[in-house]
Design a protein that fits this description.
With 388 residues, the chain is an alpha/beta fold. It has 13 helices and 15 strands. 40% of the residues lie in helices and 15% in strands.
Length: 388
């Protein structure tokens, strides 16, 4: 490998959200990698830093071109410059869009178990969460399309927050399923916000399918939120983009982001994004291979050492979704016990809504030695858990 993903970097006492924990604790919860960013990105940031002036920024053509070229070559989605809008982050974008496209007490549809902050984006804006629970069977997930249609048909539902690939279950939705979602959304006049922030972290050899490129229906009803931040570990730089093909809908989104003042780049946001998409492909491919080796290690360790805990087979994200139903009736209770007993900090599945009750989410985007430390702590805690 050209890049060193085994390197241990001490992030304690660095104002890191992830590592602001007790000395004996091992955080494997929030979606934040413990790898250094690609040196190509670091060099671009150094160059920008050395200019020495950090005034107001505009978006250069290179920013648009980097997104357009990456999604065309990497994912087969052809985007147009006029349809891309800068935003400081995917979640700020989603919250702004919810505010703009709904009124209080309307329903916003999500597919649980799903990223817990979606609940905040909905409830903080006075709307009601409507859950279309995913179907879990034989260690895999599918959509309940009949229930999805029932929920979309409700006149009080005009917005859906969609996760593609899905966090936390790691699912890459297939083309037929995406087309079905788009067709139902068009039929019932539901706008789909597609959060695709995890799209570049897929198992080597498999790509995700952008929702907007599946069909004309999908293209017309969708707002796509994308960013280099998850794949290249740049969350602290606050940079993302929103792609909207429909001109009427795009104007609404543009107004939402500008009204909430989340549409202006900072001095490092554009430089990092351009460097990631223009020079970061080799680093990304090596990182994906490394992470999915970690996932394989976790799966094999569980089969051998902890057969009562099952890893859901995932195709995307650097997160493990662990079925702990044979150990505890509550992922939250087990997570709290693990942290108190072993120092392992993971997330209980209840945080992700209906269907998450018997799961843990664990982040394995870390050096192998840290991953093994986490597994050994998980084993020790699971074996001594009172319900075991």
């Amino acid at each position: 490998m050209k890049y060193d993903f085994d390197k241990i970097i001490d992030r304690r006492k660095t104002a890191s959200l992830k590592w602001d924990v007790k000395d004996n604790e091992l955080p494997m919860w929030v979606a934040d990698m413990d790898f250094e960013a690609a040196p190509e990105i670091t060099e671009a940031l150094k160059s920008r830093l050395l200019q020495g002036i950090f005034g107001y920024e505009i978006l250069p053509d290179a920013w648009y071109e980097s997104y357009i070229n990456w999604w065309d070559k990497r994912h087969g989605l052809k985007m147009e410059k006029e349809n891309l809008i800068f935003s400081t982050g995917v979640i700020p974008s989603i919250s702004s869009i919810v505010r703009k496209l709904t009124t209080p007490n309307e329903n916003v549809l999500i597919q649980t178990p799903v990223y817990n902050v979606f609940f905040n984006c909905i409830e903080n804006n006075g709307c009601r969460v409507t859950e279309n629970a995913l179907v879990y069977k034989d260690n895999a997930y599918t959509m309940d399309l009949a229930d999805l249609e029932k929920k979309m048909a409700d006149p009080q539902t005009n917005l859906m927050i969609f996760c593609n690939p899905h966090n936390p279950v790691g699912k890459i939705w297939d083309r037929d399923t995406l087309a079905a979602v788009g067709s139902l959304a068009k039929k019932y006049h539901v706008t789909v916000i597609s959060d695709e922030i995890h799209c570049d972290i897929t198992v080597p050899g498999k790509d995700y399918i952008p929702f907007a490129c599946v069909s004309e229906d999908c293209r017309e009803v969708s707002i796509t939120c994308i960013a280099p931040t998850k794949a290249f570990n740049l969350a602290g730089l606050h940079t993302s983009a929103v792609y909207v093909a429909d001109s009427f809908l795009r104007h609404k989104v543009w107004r939402a982001l500008n009204t909430d003042e989340v549409a202006e780049p900072n001095s490092f946001a554009t430089a990092a994004s351009i460097a990631a998409f223009e020079k970061g492909a080799a680093w990304l491919d090596e990182m994906r291979a490394y992470v999915f080796e970690n996932k394989k290690t976790v799966t094999e360790f569980l089969k051998k050492e902890m057969p009562k805990i099952k890893a859901v087979e995932t195709e995307a994200t650097y997160l493990m979704w662990l079925d702990v139903s044979q150990v505890s009736d509550s992922g939250r209770k087990l997570a709290a016990y693990l942290r108190a007993k072993t120092g392992l900090f993971v997330t209980g599945g209840e945080a992700y809504g209906t269907g998450g009750e018997h799961f843990l989410r664990m982040n394995v985007a870390c050096p192998k030695s840290i991953c093994m430390d986490g597994l050994n702590r998980l084993k020790a805690g699971a074996e001594s858990f009172p319900n075991a």
